Amino acid sequence: MAEEATVNPDGSTTFEGAGDEAFNATEEEPIFVEEEVVKGVDPAIYLGLFVLILGLLWFFVLRSQNKEEDEFFAELDVEKFNLKLPDAVDEYYAIKEKVIEAGWEPGQAPSPGDTTNASGPHRVMAQALMKRCIADIPIVTHIQKESAGMNKLYSQSMCSVKQWRAYQAAEAMVSAEVDEVRAEADEIEPGWSQVIWRQAMQYHNMLKQKHEMEQKAAAEEAKKRKIIEERVNAEKKRMSDAEAKEKAAEQAAADLLKAEEREKESKQSFSGKGGMKKGFMDGKKK
Description:
The protein is mainly α. It contains 5 helices and 2 strands, in the order E-E-H-H-H-H-H. It has helices spanning 43-79, 87-101, 121-155, 161-188, 196-268, and strands spanning 5-7, 13-15. It has a two-stranded antiparallel sheet. Helix 1 runs parallel beside helix 4, helix 2 runs antiparallel to helix 3 (121-155) and helix 3 runs antiparallel to helix 4 (161-188).
């Protein structure tokens, strides 16, 4: 059966009997095309990774530098406790050995004339021990100044184990030296151990003051000597300049005289003595 086509006013055509399959001939069904989306890696991820790696490198570099600085300052702190006993300690025991060989006994009371005799064993031993004690003063005062600070740092866990052990070793050495000096003082003169360190401190301060005064006097003397030398050099320079000026004036005067003589001679060459003879031009006229 043929299907009848009906033309609608809007120009479309409808086929009768098509049922649900009727459709508009002029209308086109839209076609949907699915676009394939290409997904790539976000550049921000690469930037983030680069910044992270750079930050890690910078962190390790700073950490390495800080570690080296900490080790450097730790070595400095340990170095200041690398103390040694002065040479006066060995000198004292050498003198003591000689005095004992000469018959002196430790703890023996001095004879009446021994304290005033400069070469007596008691006087020699006392001088040697006092020299040793005075030489010990710098390291004793150094440990005393560092003691409070080091104990505070150790209590707050702010110093290294190496630094603390170095301090303990230095403190033990100095404490043993202090006790040894006191024991030796009592062997020379009973009861001297109570005052020997006080006396040594007084002598040390006196010697230090004397040394400072000598250095100051030497500096002032050097300053005065420098001022005198500067004045002498200035005077020599002034005299040298005056002599140079005098020589220059003499040379200028000599040059002037020579110039005048040359000028005078040149004038004389055109005078009657050295001029042209009379009739020289006439002889040629005829």
